[in-house]
Structures are given as C-alpha cells and as structure tokens.
C-alpha cells in the first residue's frame, strides 16, 4: 500500500506576505463551517494541487483568485498549470467559480467570485450553499476594517452665545425637472434656455419624471436628432416635451425567490468558464467539458454520478492524478 506523504509538496508562501487584492466585490469567499486548519489538510491531493490549495487556503477573503494573479504569486507553476490545478480543486469539491449580481448605489453589475472550502464538499452541499448566497445584496467594500475613531474630548465650557435658529429648508430650491432643463443649454448651445424658459417648461418636464425616467433620459431625448436650424429653443423644447413624453408603464410584479436566485447567481465551468445554474455543473464542469474530459476524471454524460455517501476516495484521488497529467 502506498504511503501518503502530506509534506512532500513544497511549502506555500507564508501567509504574512502581501497578497493581491481583487477589485471590490470580486475575489475569494470562504464558505461557512470550515474545520480548524490541520497539517494534513489536502493530503490526498497531488503535489501541485496541494501546493496551490495551501496557498489559497491562507488567503483572506477578497484576495485575487484569478489564474494570472496566482501564477505571479506562485512562481513554481505557470498559468496553464495553475488553471489545471484550479480545475482539479473544483472537481475535488474545494472551490466553485461563481458569477454573482450585486447592487450598489442603485446600479446592478455582475462580479466573479471564487467560493473556497478547506473541506472537500459534495455537489449537493455546494449547490445548497450557493442557493443561499443568491439573493442580491448591496456590495460591501473589501479591505481591512477601518479603525473606530477615538472620541474627541469635550470642548471647554464657554459662555453660551446667542445661537441662531437652524435655517429652514429652502422651499425655493430648483426641482429636478428645472435642473434638467437648465442642463440642456450646457450640453447643446442651440437649446440654451433662460431662467424664465425653464420655469415655464418645468411642469411639462416634471410629468416625464412621474413616468419613471430620470434626468439623463430626459436630456438625451430632448437633444438627440436636432435639426440644423432652431429658431426658438423654448418652442422647440416645449414641442418635444409634449410629443416625446414616454408612456406610462404598469408596475412590474416583484419576482419570486426562485426567479430572483436564478438571475442573481451563476456557476462558471472550471474548464471553459461557461456560466450556468449550480445544479447543471456538477463537480464544477459543464456538460460539454464533462463529456470531453480524459478517462478517469469523473462520470461523463452517459454515466450517472454516484451519490456523495458512496464516493470512493481512492478512485477520486486517482482521477485527480490523471487530471494533473492533462496539460
């Protein structure tokens, strides 16, 4: 029987060294219920995968997890080797590449995160965890926590001065519709409007805002496709405010939890990067990549996967060693 040598792989770089931080919202995300680190962690993995896993495991959340960054930090292996190692770790149940939609400051965008588990997880556990991560949440900045500012000492007591009353809110502040009309002349001199023109057209412009558009939409609609000659800017803008007013749209019903989860999170194939729902990418591989995988790398599309409880650890290690030989 072959003897395992957990310490045969080269030691990963020290955790205290500077790490590459991913852009806000991207990078490493640790799953919950992680076991306490042990010297025998990743002992069943091949040497290269053990080395990469040891380094990734020590990275803090938010650290860069893309292939180029890892290849720069781990000079023993190039980008192709790192990519193959990450694929093997995905098949072994240690990571999943995920595209997640986040909302921040009223804007929605897609980011790529790598969920990492020190303990190898089966497909059912990972799919269930990722389903819980799916609801859209505001994106939080990644970085070390900021220090709490110290309390400033109280100012010495001085004779109380006559304090002026807080100014009342300015009821004469220009409305968003007025400000949007005032912007038009800055962007298109042929449509420069006076203060009186803006006040006269304010009610018509405000009607646009009640129909769900913003100032940028209104300005774009009024300044696009202008004729070569405009005799009266105020008359031209009044006509466009009347003729191009957008239709009223019924309020869209709120999507159910299942529909929101499908749109909010997609798992990326560890081989080709193709996104899809978690249940469609067992072992982190899409159907075409599983069908074209070398023999011994796991079940193909014609073979049903074994349940997690019946998975043969020795066979899994052998399949990962075959992956290691694949360029």
What does this structure look like?
- The structure is a single chain.
- The protein has 327 residues and is α+β, with helices and mostly antiparallel strands.
- The chain has 2 domains: 27-139 and 256-325, no CATH class; 176-243, no CATH class.
- The chain has helices spanning 47-58, 67-73, 79-92, 123-133, 176-187, 195-209, 215-223, 233-243, 257-264, 287-291, 313-325, and strands at residues 27-30, 95-104, 107-116, 265-268, 275-276.
- A 5-stranded mixed β-sheet has the order 1-3-2-4-5.
- Helix 1 crosses helix 3 (79-92).
Provide tags for this entry:
single chain, 327 residues, five-stranded mixed sheet, 11 helices
Task: Please sum up the structure shown.
A 5-stranded mixed sheet has the order 1-3-2-4-5. The chain is built from 11 helices and 5 strands, in the order βαααββααααααββαα. The chain is of the alpha+beta class.
Lateral arrangement of strands in the main beta sheet: 1-3-2-4-5
What is the CA-atom radius of gyration, in angstroms? 29 Å
Residue-averaged pLDDT: 76
**Proportion of residues in extended strands:** 5-15%
Blueprint of the fold:
Layout: E1 27-30, H1 47-58, H2 67-73, H3 79-92, E2 95-104, E3 107-116, H4 123-133, H5 176-187, H6 195-209, H7 215-223, H8 233-243, H9 257-264, E4 265-268, E5 275-276, H10 287-291, H11 313-325
Parallel strand pairs: 1-3
Antiparallel strand pairs: 2-3, 2-4, 4-5
Helix pairs in contact: 1-3, 2-3, 3-11, 5-6, 5-7, 6-8
């Amino acid at each position: 029987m072959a003897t395992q040598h957990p310490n045969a792989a080269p030691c990963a770089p020290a955790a205290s060294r500077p790490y590459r931080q991913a852009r806000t919202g991207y990078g490493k995300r640790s799953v919950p219920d992680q076991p306490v680190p042990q010297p025998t962690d990743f002992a069943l993995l091949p040497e290269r995968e053990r080395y990469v896993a040891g380094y990734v495991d020590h990275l803090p959340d938010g650290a860069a997890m893309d292939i180029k960054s890892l290849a720069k930090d781990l000079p023993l292996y190039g980008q192709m080797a790192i990519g193959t190692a990450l694929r093997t770790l995905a098949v072994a149940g240690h990571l999943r590449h995920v595209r997640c939609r986040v909302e921040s400051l009223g804007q929605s965008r897609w980011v790529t995160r790598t969920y990492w588990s020190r303990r190898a997880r089966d497909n059912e556990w990972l799919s269930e965890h990722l389903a819980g991560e799916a609801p859209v949440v505001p994106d939080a900045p990644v970085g070390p926590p900021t220090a709490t500012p110290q309390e400033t000492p109280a100012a010495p007591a001085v004779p109380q001065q006559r304090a002026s009353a807080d100014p009342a809110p300015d009821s004469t502040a220009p409305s968003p519709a007025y400000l949007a009309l005032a912007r038009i002349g800055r962007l298109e001199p042929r449509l420069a409007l006076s203060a009186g023109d803006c006040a006269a057209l304010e009610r018509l412009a405000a009607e646009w805002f009640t129909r769900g558009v913003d100032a940028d939409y209104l300005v774009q609609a009024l300044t696009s496709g202008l004729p070569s000659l405009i005799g009266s800017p105020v008359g031209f803008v009044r006509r466009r405010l009347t003729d191009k007013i957008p239709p009223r749209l019924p309020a869209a019903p709120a999507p159910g939890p299942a529909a929101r989860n499908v749109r909010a999170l997609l798992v990326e194939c560890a081989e080709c990067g193709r996104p899809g729902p978690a249940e469609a990418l067992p072992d982190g591989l899409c159907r075409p990549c599983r069908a074209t995988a070398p023999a011994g790398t796991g079940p193909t599309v014609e073979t049903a996967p074994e349940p997690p409880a019946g998975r043969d650890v020795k066979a899994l290690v052998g399949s990962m060693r075959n992956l290691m030989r694949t360029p």
